[in-house]
Specification:
- The strands form three sheets. Strands 3, 4, 5, 6, 11, 12, 13, 14, 15 and 16 form a ten-stranded mixed sheet that branches.
- Strand 9 and strand 10 form a beta hairpin.
- This protein has 587 residues and is α+β, with helices and mostly antiparallel strands.
- Helix 2 runs parallel beside helix 7, helix 4 packs across helix 5 and helix 19 runs antiparallel to helix 20.
- The longest helix is centred in the C-terminal third of the chain and has 21 residues.
- The protein starts with 12 loop residues before the first helix and ends in a 15-residue tail after the last helix.
- The chain contains 20 helices and 20 strands.
Length: 587
């Protein structure tokens, strides 16, 4: 089964308008997915590849909620193994293998981590058993072969060779194991694009404001509003799936006044520091008093986190506080010899994990770290269901369960096929990657540039090269961010659904993460490219830059505040690019 990746899988302003027209026609859709994070995008792909007429809408940009702000790991969850969550770990390790080897090998890359040991004998033996079980479960999940290397044991001297920057007092040795990393927002965008390639109708910046029912109380569709134009429409749907993460309860309230799934929001904070700031060739994973600590190497920077704290403020734009940043620095500096300071930080980000509140705990306080990461699908009303919980790595299983639930008995004759569906850029990736040296020579690129582009585009790098061959100016690096090409911005608008400057800087080329000014200095050149593609006038260009500047200033100010309530109030003062509307609650 092959999608028409060159046409239908290109998300653009035009394809969005066409999708909105199509999903609101008289025929309606079989499945309407609410929520454009990794779960919703996975559901749209699962449903579309079963031959169902599928629509997916997202109130913000694709991946604008939790899915852009994870630790950017595809992992089995070693810490869950120590909590004896065997089913969750086995499921996640199988999915990790699929992503690494079949469905998204260009996006998902094996990543080594060190597990530092304090006690040389007892702890090494205990940890070796746990990590050995982790490796064995991964081996079995991959069908009897290794998708990543097995554990390795290091003495103190061996550990220092792999991670020269580790503090001598922090360890007596280490065990190295492998998981994988991914650009989370890019994974979501590629999932939506792949779903569109199989016929799914996809519209971002489109909010569901009311759920429609017939006289019997069965859900028949939804009222939507195009947040770009204010136009209101109705989608007729055979079944609606609520995949809105931390907004699950708000979405449920449009269909029923009864309690459905209850979701606890837990805030996770990460900091970004330059790659050269820590001397190491491996990441680190260890447990802390309150959560876990990941120190994860990327090509140009390190991601360090995380926190795990209950969160009750505005869910659209969570932010790291001064206290969060201090906590992460303190935990990292227990391991890093040349201790980090706030001056080393390039940027920070915060995301909200949607954790299922156990039914027995409703109405009671619960520590977010004790809530299960397993997912649940539940009927909200006849014709509408909700899915919540889970983790990024297991999105495909969650999607399969959600569509199976929606289909009921029909699922037996329309089984999921996504184990074998490659995402855009995956088909032919290995063949193109084998020519990386030749690509560098033919295009005048360094090895780092080729690696970077292959991880972004996979086999679609051939399309980027063709674009540059037609007009060499697209191969020019951005003046203020030369790690990216002008073609990256063009591709974001023409094929990846970017509608605003924020969409490009935050979730496409992600200068929001790797530039101290969050990419603001590159805004003029990016706006120039976007304006030509989207037909912006001068007033629109100025407004786009103004809104992004407000966001940058608000986050900087919020990071100097101590509490979530103070920080949230600061960020709420920045005007969103396409404000959400109030929703109509069921009575």
């Amino acid at each position: 089964m092959t999608a028409t990746f060159t046409t239908q899988s290109q998300l653009s302003a035009q394809s969005r308008r066409q999708a909105l027209d199509a999903m609101t026609d008289e025929a309606g859709v079989d499945i309407l997915v609410i929520g454009g994070g990794v779960t919703g995008a996975g559901i749209a792909l699962d449903a579309a590849t079963r031959g169902l007429r599928t629509a997916i809408v997202e109130a913000g940009d694709w991946a604008a909620g939790t899915s852009a702000w994870s630790s950017k790991l595809v992992h089995g969850g070693l810490r869950y193994l120590y909590n004896l969550d065997f089913k969750l770990v086995a499921e996640a390790l199988k999915e990790r293998g699929l992503l690494l080897e079949r469905t998204a090998p260009h996006l998902v890359k094996a990543q080594p981590f060190l597990w530092p040991l304090k006690m040389p004998v007892v702890e090494r033996a205990y940890s070796a058993v746990g990590i050995g079980m982790y490796d064995t479960m991964a081996f079995l999940g991959a069908g009897g072969h290794r998708a990543v290397p097995a554990q390795r044991h290091f003495s103190k001297e061996g550990t220092k060779r792999v991670f020269p920057g580790i503090k001598d007092s922090a360890f007596s040795g280490a065990i190295q194991f492998y998981d994988a990393r991914v650009d989370d927002a890019r994974l979501v965008i590629d999932l939506v694009r792949t779903a569109a390639g199989y016929g799914a109708l996809a519209a971002s910046r489109t909010q569901v404001t009311a759920i429609e029912k017939d006289a019997s109380g069965r859900v028949t569709g939804a009222q939507i509003v195009d947040l770009e134009t204010g136009q209101e429409k109705t989608v007729r749907a055979g079944h609606i799936i609520n995949a809105t993460g931390v907004w699950t309860e708000e979405t449920e309230s449009m269909a029923t006044s009864n309690k459905g799934l209850e979701v606890l929001a837990s805030k996770g904070v990460h900091i970004i520091v330059p790659r050269e700031r820590i001397k190491a060739s491996s990441g680190i994973f260890t447990k802390t008093e309150k959560s876990v600590l990941f120190i994860i190497p990327w090509q140009r920077y390190w991601i360090i986190g995380t926190t795990d704290t209950p969160y009750t403020e505005d869910r659209e734009r969570p932010v790291a506080t001064k206290a969060d940043i201090r906590y992460v620095l303190d935990q990292a500096n227990k391991l890093i010899a040349d201790e980090l300071t706030e001056d080393d930080i390039i940027s920070t980000y915060a995301g909200l994990r949607p954790l299922l509140q156990p039914v027995a705990k409703k109405g009671e306080a619960a520590a977010s770290t004790k809530v299960s990461r397993e997912h649940t699908v539940m009927e909200i009303a006849p014709g509408m269901s909700a899915i919540a919980g889970g983790k990024l790595t297991t999105y495909r299983v969650m999607a399969q369960d959600a569509v199976d639930f929606a289909l009921g008995r029909r699922a037996k004759n329309l089984p999921s096929v996504t184990e074998n569906i490659k995402l855009v850029g995956a088909e032919g990736y290995e063949a193109l990657a084998s020519r990386s040296e030749a690509l560098a020579g033919e295009n005048g690129w360094g090895a780092d540039r080729v690696e970077h582009l292959l991880e972004r585009y996979g086999s679609e790098l051939a399309d980027i090269i063709a674009l540059i061959e037609q007009d060499s100016s697209w191969g020019t690096p951005l003046a203020e961010a030369p790690q990216f090409l002008r073609a990256d911005v063009l591709q974001a608008v023409r094929a990846e659904g970017a509608l605003h400057l924020e969409d490009v800087l935050v979730r496409r080329i992600r200068l929001d993460l790797e530039a101290k000014d969050r990419g603001l200095s590159a805004a003029d050149e990016i706006i120039e490219i976007m304006a030509q593609e989207l037909g912006w006038d001068e007033q629109t260009c100025q407004q786009e830059k103004k809104l992004y500047g407000e966001r940058v200033q608000a986050i900087a100010a919020a990071q100097q505040l101590t509490t979530d309530s103070e920080a949230a109030a600061e960020v709420l003062g920045a005007t969103p690019v396409a404000p959400r509307q109030a929703v109509e609650q069921a009575h």
